[in-house]
Amino acid sequence: MKKFIAYYRVSTDKQKRSGLGLEAQQTAVRVFAEAHQGRIVKTYEEAETATGKRDRPELKKALAHARREGAVLVVAKLDRLTRNAGFMCALCDSGAKFVACDNPGINEMTAKILAVVAEEEAKWISSRTKVALTALKERGVLLGTARPGSKKLTPEARLKGAKKAGAILKAMADDAYTDLYPVVTQLRQEGKTLDAIASALNGEGYTTSRGLPWGKVQVGRLLERAERVG
């Protein structure tokens, strides 16, 4: 049976409290899951203000859960996921599978195609820039490190770049368990042992990023990561 992670979003806290728009989303997702012989293993919902910020914590949790479980993130309408093209491209790169009930054709593959089109446009712009730079060089204009007063990349700068890349990879690893940090932290605060927490996670159907069941060693590492992330 196909597994779905449902994500619901309303535009304001007031709408979330009143349920305005939420019931319609829930109904659409439920009908979609039943029609595709799937089950909703977890739901996430949040209210996003009119500022339209891209760093939505519940969506981040839903994506982490979907990637780890090999599930499909399902939304009632595509605009419930995002209206930002850049965010959509980043979502495709994340490896998360998703689908919108209002237009099942707008799925991961379609979004990737749109992202490819955008990438080709960027390459076209880059090509034009290279042509322009070549023309400047032919006119004798100094560019880059050839310019007077410009600085070449130092070993320190290279080290700084490597550290930054490492930090990005570390952040990606932290994001993989965003949805579980509050769960394991709460269980630990309740006095549960590592084995008990592992059993609770396995009982709820959670797996590690490698698709394996939880053990006390993995739980211990997860708690350390949760404490570090805060």
Would you mind describing this structure in some detail?
This protein is of the alpha/beta class. The protein contains ten helices and four strands. It has a four-stranded parallel sheet, with helices on both faces. α5 packs across α6 and α9 packs across α10. The protein is flat. The two termini are about 35 Å apart.
Strand order of the largest sheet: 2-1-3-4
Task: Please state the average pLDDT score.
Answer: 78
From the N-terminal CA to the C-terminal CA, the straight-line distance is: 35 Å
Element-level helix/strand string: EHHEHEHHEHHHHH
Q: What is the count of structural domains?
A: 2
Instruction: Estimate percent helicity.
Output: 55-70%
Mind telling me which CATH architecture of the largest domain this is?
3-Layer(aba) Sandwich
Anisotropy-based shape? flat
Individual helix count: 10
CATH class of the largest domain, named Alpha Beta
Detail the poorly predicted runs.
none
**Beta-strand content bin:** 5-15%
Question: How would you characterize the largest beta sheet?
Answer: 4 strands, parallel
The radius of gyration over CA amounts to: 23 Å
- The total count of strands amounts to 4
In CATH, the homologous superfamily of the largest domain goes by the name Resolvase, N-terminal catalytic domain
